[in-house]
Amino acid sequence: MMGLTNQYLYEFLESYGFTTPQRAVKIVPKLTSDEIGSFLEKYKEMQGDSTLVPRKSPGFISAFSDSWLSALSPKLIKQLCLFTDTIYIKDPLVEEYFLFKTMNMNPTYVLSYPNKDSRTDVVRNSLAKSLQMLLRLRPLVEMGIVVVLPMQLLAGRKEPGAMYSDSFYGPDKDLLPSFETNPFPPHIQKYLDSHLRIHPVTFENDSHVIRCDKKLEPTRMISVGFNDETPKIFHLFEIQKMDEETKTFGMFLDIYGRGEAVDRDTFYNWVEGSRNQYVSERLKVLETDTQLASGTHSRLLTSSKTSIDLHNLLSSNGGIDATEAINYIDMVDSNCKCTT
């Protein structure tokens, strides 16, 4: 029985000629940037309008993959199908949508791939892999054994490319919109103090390098992440004077540290704000996954010990429903490059 979520998925892909993994490999390299954008936009709208969670009856053995982590491989998914009636996975094409929408605005990609065409090639390669994955899983999806869910649309992600009030920082915390010091409960804060890592980042040989060996001093780039997970890179832009006539302002990122020194108070406010933003997003995704897993009578499946720790901390204090268990699979999911 097919879940309602995936009712039109393969009909949609076939309308673009994506019928087999081999066809996807041939078609994607020929797509222009506009064609890729149109395809992903329509796909995201289709998945956003669909029924998100087809509820399973008690007695089924179901697994729900941790959507904070990278997608499970088709090989691992097929192995898991030997032990479960249904496995829910995050939609790889919705992930491609967010990649495409942020590619030309995300400093991590812009710095590593200065040419717009090279960034489009990155999207093409990633899109081709995601299409191949979905097409290889088609028999399992159509049988209802694998269900593809657009979990990313439920976890409160910010609109790609939009500027928010909490994107700006200055030396005075009282003047920063929505800024809150230590917004997490004490038991969560205690865990963050011992497990969350913040390091300075340098840009060398066209790539970001996390400097675990350096003390955190005022700089324009930092990494934030838990011990066993791939960290996120944050960038502190310098805001240039507003043009009164056009009502526009410029943003400048000094990646080599040759410009004006970063104000210390502004820097530490930015570090604290970036930390809070990262943790809030991490907890929101986990809570959403847990709620969806509960709604499908599934066990949350993860390779992250951080997910297990946070799940237990939230459960023990009434933050999320603890009736559904969480299972750990031994699978390396982090490719953090760290120099010492």
- Which structural class do you get from the secondary structure elements? alpha/beta
Question: How do the strands line up in the largest sheet?
Answer: 3-2-1-10-11
| Unreliable sequence segments | 318-325, 331-340
How large is the count of helical segments? 11
Estimate the mean pLDDT confidence.
82
Q: How many domains in all?
A: 2
Could you say which overall geometry the principal axes of the C-alpha atoms support? globular
End-to-end distance: 52 Å
- Assembly state (oligomeric): single chain
Secondary-structure element order, N to C? HHHEHEHHHHEHEEEEEEHEHEE
Question: What is the CA-based Rg, rounded?
Answer: 21 Å
Q: β content, as a range?
A: 15-25%
The largest sheet is:
5 strands, parallel
Helix percentage? 25-40%
Give a written overview of the molecule.
With 340 residues, the protein is of the alpha/beta class. The protein has 2 domains: 4-160, no CATH class; 165-278, no CATH class. The protein has 11 helices and 12 strands. The strands form 3 sheets. It has a 5-stranded parallel beta sheet with strand order 3-2-1-10-11. It has a 5-stranded mixed beta sheet with strand order 7-6-4-5-12. The termini are far apart.
Summarize the SSE layout with pairings.
Blueprint: H1 9-15, H2 21-27, H3 33-49, E1 62-65, H4 74-80, E2 86-90, H5 92-102, H6 107-112, H7 116-136, H8 138-142, E3 146-149, H9 186-195, E4 196-204, E5 207-211, E6 221-226, E7 232-235, E8 238-239, E9 251-252, H10 264-295, E10 298-302, H11 305-316, E11 326-328, E12 338-339
Parallel strand pairs: 1-2, 1-10, 2-3, 5-12, 10-11
Antiparallel strand pairs: 4-5, 4-6, 6-7, 8-9
Helix pairs in contact: 2-7, 3-5, 5-7
